[in-house]
Design goal:
The chain has seven helices and 13 strands. The protein is an alpha+beta fold and 291 residues long. The chain has a single domain (2-290), classed as Alpha-Beta Complex (paralog of FGE (formylglycine-generating enzyme)), CATH 3.90.1580. The longest helix has 15 residues, at 120-134.
Length: 291
Amino acid sequence: MLIAFKLKLALACVAGLAGPLAVAPLLSDAGIRGGADGTGQAIVEVRAGNVSYRVAGDFTRNGRQAAAPLRHITFQEPLAIMKHQVSSADYQACVDAGACRSLDRGVVIAPDRPAVQVSWHDANAYAGWLSRKTGEHYRLPTDEEWAFAAGSRFSDDGLPVDNDDPSKRWIARYERESERKPGGGDVRAFGSFGINENGLADLAGNVWEWTSTCFTRHRLDDAGETVSARSNCGVRVVQGQHRSYVTDFIRDARAGGCAAGVPPDNLGFRLVREPQSWVSAVAKALHIARG
């Protein structure tokens, strides 16, 4: 177990850090309500649009480190995503139902505070429980979806690669992250870090958010296209002030994660709600009827 843990961390730590550059889409009406324990989690629907996205993972070309490619992604359907991170009170409802692991003792349980010190497995368990409870389908966002929803709250973190001295990339990454002001370990009330142009609160604050995206090593051709990719889903992408890669069972990235400069303060999450098909609408109606 210890060897596997070290291998996962070592794999995460060799990854080059790259982030998304989002082109802000328009925002439709927010205010769709539906909480796990009656607190009323708001869902923001971000209209279809485009994002310039720096691909996550580690990249090589001809056996040497390469810069992460920039892709232009079109979202042809609206994205329904939680306005806030999942609150500790909502998460505690899952714990009380026996479907989620208990939060650490130091986490304040309140409807206006995010659930933090949670692993990827904790977040995934909550999404499954909430889906069963509501009849809707909730899941963690992909890294691309997070970038799209984040808009201007996350800038392009791509770094050039000097083939004559690859260490310059690590030094530049360290210097850039070290210049960022730490968000502080104390978990603050929702809204403390403001709302972005898409209506989402507290993006890039002091809570890094789990995504469903696995850490992947890419081998590129001379044109910058991926010719092979190898994923390790024991390490997932987390998003916040900067993109980072964290082993899926880690709850406190300050003790067990990997970053240069400023490490993630807290690990939390928000969920995407999938659009309903007619089948899921009927299933939800039956779920409500059965009470």
